[in-house]
Amino acid sequence: MNMKRTGAMRRFLMMLMCCSLLSIAGCRGPSDMHPHEVVTRSIDGLSGEDHFLFKGMTEIRAGEREVLTKRLRFEGQVKHHQGMYMRLITHPRKENTTTSRWNPLKLLEELGEAETTVERVEPTKVLYALYAQQGTSKKERGVTEPTFPLDEAQAYHIQVEGQSAKKIFASKVWEDYNQIVLPHEKVMAVHDKLSRSDAVRLEQELNEAEAKHRAELDKLLKGCKVDAEYVLWIDRKSQLPLRLDGKMKVYYNDKGKSSETIRTVSEFTRTR
């Protein structure tokens, strides 16, 4: 009888010890976790939030000297039961691009799924790391200061593996292409001014041209090389993303010369 009680007591104590260990493991702080795990948890945490604002800017620069060719600003919000709203400050048709291509929430999801190397870095040392370029001022580089105190955030440098970076870039280019290059839509815009036979012939010619351009773009994207790195700023208290800075360099030839540089800055603010 005593042996049974002793065995039961031993099992009970072991169960308490296991529960205590699981509880401790489940309450680990960021300092005890691998940087990759911290970033993944932070991104997942934001996807569970339903009240926050975001805003940002993206620049596209050409060549090794990174000559500015396009600058877009965007803003948006996520509201409970109302989904996500986002708009480009500059009209998307005028800029020949779409809002979804620059959606920072989608980019965060893509980074969470990509093959990456993550390391914790000092905020004060990485503030302009992605934007450093000899011979240009902060203003010329489009650098913006964080809107939060640096001591309230922890910064994580994210280096994206080559194939994952290429996949992210290609998917965004195709997203724009498939929403902007629409032969049928262009024919319908002038449909009333054409005879039925002329409209049919025009649409056929546009479809043939689109197929040719699609094949050329597909070849270009498959042959390009993409380097991508980001700095994710995470709030020390909430462990949610505060800001994402990024730089993506695209090489369209095998000579190692950058053909295009895409720089992005996004900030996220909880509204409750």
Give a quick rundown of the structure.
This protein is of the alpha+beta class. It is built from 9 helices and 8 strands. The chain starts with a helix and ends with a strand.
Overall outline: globular
| Helix and strand element order | HHEEEHHEHHEHHHEEE
Fraction in beta strands: 25-35%
Q: Figure out the total of helices.
A: 9
**Which stretches of 5+ consecutive residues score pLDDT under 50?**
1-27
What is the first-to-last residue Cα distance? 59 Å
Structural notes for this entry:
The longest helix is centred in the last third of the chain and has 28 residues, at 196-223. An eight-stranded antiparallel sheet has the order 3-2-1-8-7-6-5-4. The protein is of the alpha+beta class and 272 residues long. It is built from nine helices and eight strands. A hairpin with a 4-residue loop joins strand 1 (52-62) and strand 2. The chain has helices at residues 2-26, 35-47, 92-95, 104-113, 123-126, 138-141, 162-180, 183-189, 196-223; strands spanning 52-62, 67-79, 83-88, 116-121, 153-160, 225-235, 241-251, 260-270. Helix content is 42%, strand content 28%. Helix 8 packs antiparallel against helix 9.
